[in-house]
Amino acid sequence: MTATAPITQDVMTIPRKLPEGPVNLVGLTRDAMRAALIAHGTPEKQAKMRVGQIWQWIYQKGVRDFDQMTNLAKPYRQELAENFCIEVPEVVTRQLSEDGTRKYLVRIAGGHEVEVVYIPEEGRGTLCISSQVGCTLTCSFCHTGTQKLVRNLTAAEIIGQVMVARDDLGEWPAPGRNPKDETRLLSNIVLMGMGEPLYNFDNVRDAMKIAMDPEGISLSRRRITLSTSGVVPEIARTAQEIGCLLAVSFHATTDETRDKLVPINKRWNIAALLDALREYPKVSNSERITFEYVMLAGVNDTDEDARRLVKLIEGIPAKINLIPFNEWPGAPYKRSSNNRIHAFADIIYKAGYASPIRTPRGEDIMAACGQLKSATERARKTRAQIEAEAGLR
Ligand code: SAH
Ligand code: SF4
Q1: Which of 158, 212, 264, 304 is 20 to 30 Å apart from 126, CA to CA?
Q2: Model confidence at 182, in pLDDT bands (50, 70, 90)?
Q3: 3-state secondary structure of 84
Q4: Count of other CB atoms within 10 angstroms of residue 316
Q5: In the chain, which ranges are continuous DSSP H helix?
Q6: Is the pLDDT confidence value at 223 over 50?
Q7: Could you tell me if 53 and 34 are in contact, meaning their C-beta atoms sit under 8 angstroms apart?
Q8: Is the CB of 249 within 6 Å of ligand 2?
């Protein structure tokens, strides 16, 4: 790579381990964990069973110390401790909103920081996780899109966000408690934090597979929602390889407006996006697709827009999630009035679609959709520094 080459989507993930350090077992698929154990001396015949045991300790019981893995022989535990580690992101700050929303700032390798938001609701609790530090896309209404610093998170860093939230919620099952309990505090995951998950496909997939694994965190694929701005070529893969629910940041009903709001539309326009979405439920056995629609005063919120929207999505099993714009310092838009939002919702509802208006949560701690951005000065490095750190230079 030359010194002037721009950073690109597919070279942003830093290696999962430092050359000399122990291998982090967090984030490895079962196959990868098996291979890692064998490479460090576990007899092949035992490897599958050992993966099963270690997996349960890490993902079902929340154990971070090999010494607590009491169904493994002491010398084997020691061997593991010499070659491996169980590492999750470090929680730097934790903010609690008046409405119970929690926002965590977590630090990952290289000193980068990402935000994770926990939203308690009646009968469920949703964790909004990030897939990248910042975002390479530049949706004009999104605070994350203004952040220059970008790198993909590793699978360990993605599933690690779920693990640290469970730590904080005290939700690792105690002996005798059923881990599948539907009254869990953390019952749903949304990939709606920082970053475009489909530009970090493999790591997101591996992490979500871990979240769904029945012997660990064990969330149903219907309790995981991936939100994309519209990376069309990866949508079919999402259905095939992850199978979770899909949300799409639609936000406009003409290419002209969508080009401005969600610039990836210049690459894959509304028609191309809708084609991919039509196939999604068939391939993934999934329920409805969620169309996210941010309400921006005077930009995309007319009755005509609402009618066009209904027409565009005809035939797709869908629900439309209206998101009142969450303002951030220097944002170039204003939130549509409540009357406007309700009038828009009404048209959609009358056309036969659910049209919930998303209540902004955790506004007092800047935890609402699209407000995430790690503002630490220390993290504001140049591209050159980031690339150097990631071993790209
Ligand atoms: N990158 C992915 C997922 C993260 S954003 C995506 O774009 O889909 C999660 C949702 O919040 C998206 O629908 C996004 O468009 C929306 N959003 C971003 N900024 C917002 C803001 N300031 N107010 C309201 N919603 C916003
Ligand atoms: Fe990135 Fe999503 Fe924000 Fe667009 S809305 S800049 S894709 S995080």
Answers
A1: 264
A2: low
A3: strand
A4: 16
A5: 30-39, 44-55, 74-83, 155-169, 201-212, 235-237, 255-261, 270-284, 303-312, 338-350, 383-389
A6: yes
A7: no
A8: yes
Write the single-letter amino acid at 337.
S
Atom of ligand 2 nearest to the CA of 194: 8
- pTM of the complete model: 0.89
Within 8 A by CB and 6+ apart from 30, the residues are 51, 55, 213
Atom 8 of ligand 2: nearest residue by CA position: 195
Q: State if residue 321 touches ligand 1 by the CB under 6 angstroms criterion.
A: no
Q: Highest mean pLDDT: which of 1-10, 264-273, 279-288?
A: 264-273
Residues in the chain: 393
In sequence order, the 6+-apart residues with CB closer than 8 A to the CB of 206 are 27, 28, 29, 155
Mean pLDDT of the chain: 88
d(CA 330, CA 140): 11
Residue 362 and residue 119: Cα distance in Å, rounded? Answer: 8
Among 283, 373, 291, 294, smallest CA distance to 328 is for: 373
Ligand 1 atom closest to the Cα of residue 326 is 23
Interatomic CA distance for residues 96 and 229, integer angstroms: 29
Q: Render pLDDT for 339-374 as a digit per residue (tens, 0 to 9).
A: 999 999 999 999 999 889 988 788 777 776 656 655
User: Catalytic amino acids?
Assistant: 115, 369
Map out the domains of the chain with their CATH numbers.
Answer: 27-85 (1.10.150.530), 90-389 (3.20.20.70)
Q: Tell me which long-range contacts 44-53 makes (C-beta under 8 A, separation of at least 24).
A: 50/76, 52/215
Ramachandran angles phi, psi of 332, nearest 5°? -85, 10
Closest CA to 257 of 343, 333, 353: 333
Asked whether the predicted pLDDT for residue 90 surpasses 50, the reply is: yes
How many angstroms is it from 106 CA to the middle of ligand 2? 19
Whether ligand 2 lies within 6 angstroms of the CB of 234 is answered as no
Residues 6+ positions from 319 with CB-CB distance below 8 Å: 288, 289, 290, 291, 353, 354, 355, 356
Distance of alpha carbon 42 from alpha carbon 36, whole angstroms: 9
Residue 16 pLDDT more than 90? no
